Amino acid sequence: MIDEKILGFFKKRKDSHVSGEELSRAIGISRTAIWKHIERLREEGYDIAASPHLGYKLVSAPDRLTEIELGWQLKTEIIGKKIISYKEINSTNDAAYSLAASGEAEGTVIIAEYQTKGRGRLGRKWISPKDKGAYFSVILRPDIPPTELSVITLFSSLAIAKTVREAVGLPAFIKWPNDILIKGQKVCGVLTELNGEMDKVNFVVAGIGININTSKELLPEGATSLSEEKGARISRLEFVRELFRNLDEYYRIFKNGKIEAILKEYKKLSSVLDRRVQIDYHNSLVSGVAIDVDKDGALILRLDSGFHERVLAGDVKILR
Ligand code: BT5
User: Fold this and answer.
1) Which of 91, 109, 277, 51 is CA-nearest to residue 179?
2) Whole-prediction pTM value?
3) In the structure, which protein residues have their CB atom closer than 6 angstroms to any atom of ligand 1?
């Protein structure tokens, strides 16, 4: 809280100094205590200049995904109202799941700079190189039956693709159900998990892993990062803050029942629609032309027999 207050002062003053005296009076702790906090912030990567007559001045903040930096004037209504940040964690999805199970509010985000057990679907691994990407999970409490879980993946993917396009200027597409691709390479994956009963969802954890400043050598074959594609380092903080805003906006549109509007945008960015695909679902293969995504987030295939098949999950291979 004190670090937050000190940083708040710096940010309001932008380019001018704040004296130790003023900080001490405003925050209600001694000047020595202020100095100790400044030292701690410096250890965190904040470049804070000190001058004997003028006081302290923030020269630059680190590109760290901390609750203080991410939450600063974020102005979202639901997503990120509370942010809990870690330097290292096993999996943000696991942490969010247990918090949600003990009553944590909707919108809370768990984010980490490194995951020792980042997970994909079906027990697969999500490689999470330290300080390079963004790995976070959002707790949601939507009023939907479990069969509509895919809709959460759907609007999350759309928010990610839109952020990549607008904030970074790269041509991101969505590969149903949960991949974001740039030029056919995976830059982001979404892992949506739920806790519920037959007809009611208690909570959903939407986990997002995105490669931001990650070099290709650290990633599996067929993966890429925003910086590799852009040819420049990306501000992770700015990107993630913008992503929170877009997730917030699409979640609110979804809550207002405007799924058709989301689908319309989604379909424009789909890399599978109108393509011939093969889907691996629980080790059974089905192929056909992907012709639609319905309001539950299911993919509709036109099989060679002419029949339509509705697929709720699976791994898609684009054949042509
Ligand atoms: C996914 O699974 O794509 C969902 C990934 C979700 C990760 C986030 S990070 C925050 C939160 N906490 C977690 O523990 N997880 C979520 P799936 O469609 O099953 O894809 C997994 C496959 O993607 C792996 O088998 C690899 O082939 C590939 N992969 C692994 N790490 C990758 C990376 N960093 N970038 C691109 N591809 C990767």
Assistant:
1) 277
2) 0.95
3) 91-93, 115, 118-121, 124-127, 135-137, 178-179, 186, 189-191, 207-209, 211, 219-220, 223
